[in-house]
Amino acid sequence: MSKTTPNPARDGSIVILTGAGISRESGLHTFRDADGIWATVRIEDVATPEAFARDPDRVHAFYNARRRGLLDPAIQPNAAHFALARLEAEWPGEVLLVTQNIDDLHGRAGSRNLIHMHGELLKVRCGACEGVSEHRADLGRADACPDCGHVGAMRPHVVWFGEMPLEMARIYDALARCDLFVSIGTSGNVYPAAGFVAEARSHSARTLELNLEPSVGASLFDDARLGPATVVVPAWVEALLAGAGTAA
Ligand code: BV8
What we know:
By secondary structure, the protein is α/β, with parallel strands linked by helices. The protein is built from eight helices and nine strands. The strands form two sheets. It has a six-stranded parallel beta sheet, with helices on both faces. It has a three-stranded antiparallel beta sheet with strand order 5-4-6, covered by helices on one side. It is globular, with a radius of gyration of 19 Å. The N and C termini lie close together (10 Å). The model has no long low-confidence stretch (mean pLDDT 94). Ligand BV8 binds at residues 19-21, 24-25, 30-33, 36, 47, 100-102, 118, 158-165, 185-187, 189-191, 211-213, 215, 228-229.
């Protein structure tokens, strides 16, 4: 077994973290690449609670444009999304997929044991009752909450900077138990997600990075395979499942 092949005879559980890079080849922009989202708009203007309080129409317009973009029929899951769904279905141990992405491509590819730690672009939340609901149309200040009827408090169900990501207790529990932690398509700039590799290492997990280029935290990984996600992720899954068939 290679040093980053989990042993299904042990707990054999795998925690996978994904970022915007895994959706790049589906046609969605990343954040910090040269053509990324933060190259054209400032985080402080569209992705903080203060921005939403200051200019809700501008924040709604930013997320309405991204929601419309995601709903374009040209945007489809790619081979990397499908490979991770196959791993969840065929790996003998648990596979937990934690994504920083707010797109729905992992779910559409078939991943079910899935946490959207930064929320979901196709869901909205009421500032009055905290109810979360599916929403595929534009959102604005005139919209009423489908649960409590309150008008004017609807926001994207997205975790902004300065807000606590979702399901953190469940994520840290999985990191403490896992045999292997794999980071895919993320630059390792944003916390707490960027700290997951150190957390997994502190519990003796093996760590692997699959990315187009080394991330900020590259030195913390036992192993890395660099290349486009649609190439390196299916190849890694194929090799892992072939090895599982012969695991002791
Ligand atoms: C928190 C949703 C505390 C929105 C996002 C001051 C005040 C408060 C907090 C902070 C602060 N200063 C710092 C912080 C912490 C802050 C942070 O980390 N800031 C950074 C910028 C320093 N974090 C937070 O604020 C977090 N909350 O700390 O709360 C708290 C404590 C107690 C109580 C309450 C609160 C919340 C962070 C979440 C913010 N929301 N997204 C939206 O999407 O609009 S973060 C945003 O960055 C996206 O979610 C994105 O996913 C995430 C990470 O980016 P990446 O996914 O890594 O994308 P990136 O472009 O950076 O990299 C892409 C990678 O892919 C590259 O490596 C590239 O090489 C690779 N790639 C490209 N193409 C391919 C590829 N790989 C493979 N194949 C390809 N084809």
